[in-house]
Amino acid sequence: MIIISDNKKKANDEKRYIGFNVTDETKKNWQEFANENKISTISKLIRESVDFYINTKPKLQFLDKIDKITHGFKESLTSIKGYSQILIEEYKEELSWEILTKIKNIFDESIKLENKISEVTEQFEIEPTKYEILIIDDDESTINLLKDYFETKNHSCKVVTKGNDALKALMKNIPKLILLDIFLPDITGYEVCQRIRSSDKLKQIPIFYITAVPEGEVNEKIKETGANGYFLKPFDILSFKELFKYL
After folding, report:
1. 115 lies in the same domain as 145
2. pLDDT at 88
3. Of 84, 103, 124, which one is at a domain's C-terminal end?
4. What is the pTM of this model?
5. Which domain covers residue 146, as residue numbers?
6. Residue 217 phi/psi, 5° resolution?
7. Residue 60 above 70 pLDDT?
């Protein structure tokens, strides 16, 4: 419980003294946080915390509106994505190539828009979204296949297309499993794996390469980088069942 007394420190002082009665545990937590963040005193920590809350509250209300808007967008996109996928898979023999191509373009654009909405949402997130599987790949067909497969098995996924973005994402959430392409637009999957293995916080995460690289090369790199295994493209999707033991 916190008790606040609002008394002038001195008769001629415009500032007022506010005192707090807190438990030893609370004081200890505040002091540890202040030390870790190089804040000189608990008083300064309290002042900065109050100022932060006052300045941030309008933003929090705005974030709530953003969340509702993006949720509505995602619901509509789910319908567009789902119906276009059904048309492609179930009616591809009956549709002309021209119509099939246009439907495929709608499906691809819905995926791009979905990813853009997720990027915008993540920029405003106060608490990072928890997920079980981090997929690091820049190939849309691979992303769609893996994401749909695991999500239909009720396992949450996050997708990033660059190695550096994956390392940033791992600072916010530690997944149970990482699926990692070797050839990425910025750094290689081998380098991503080595950086993860060099981190005490992350090194225990199971990592599996997903790649079209020759099997002999992948085997050598597994020994060098410390990955747990690999899946060669094109995939036998049923082979991913072995990963459920990590989830």
Report:
1. no
2. 86
3. 124
4. 0.54
5. 133-246
6. -65, -45
7. no
Contact assessment for residue 81 and residue 110, using Cβ atoms and an 8 Å cutoff = yes
pLDDT recorded at residue 198: 93
For residues 158 and 205, membership in a common domain is answered with: yes
Domain count, the chain: 3
Q: Indicate the SS3 state at residue 39.
A: coil
Per-residue pLDDT reduced to its tens digit, 86-106: 888 888 888 888 898 999 889
Smallest Cα–Cα separation from 111: which of 75, 140, 154, 149? Answer: 140
Query: Are 92 and 148 in a shared domain?
Result: no
Cα–Cα distance between 65 and 87 in angstroms, integer?
34
User: 19: which DSSP letter?
Assistant: E
Cβ pair 26, 14 in contact under 8 A: no
Residue 80 has pLDDT above 80, yes or no: yes
Distances (CA, A) of 101 to 92, 144, 147, 197, 235: 10, 17, 22, 43, 24
Of 53-67, 75-89, 131-145, the one with minimum mean pLDDT is 53-67
Tokens (6 digits) for 29: 């937590």
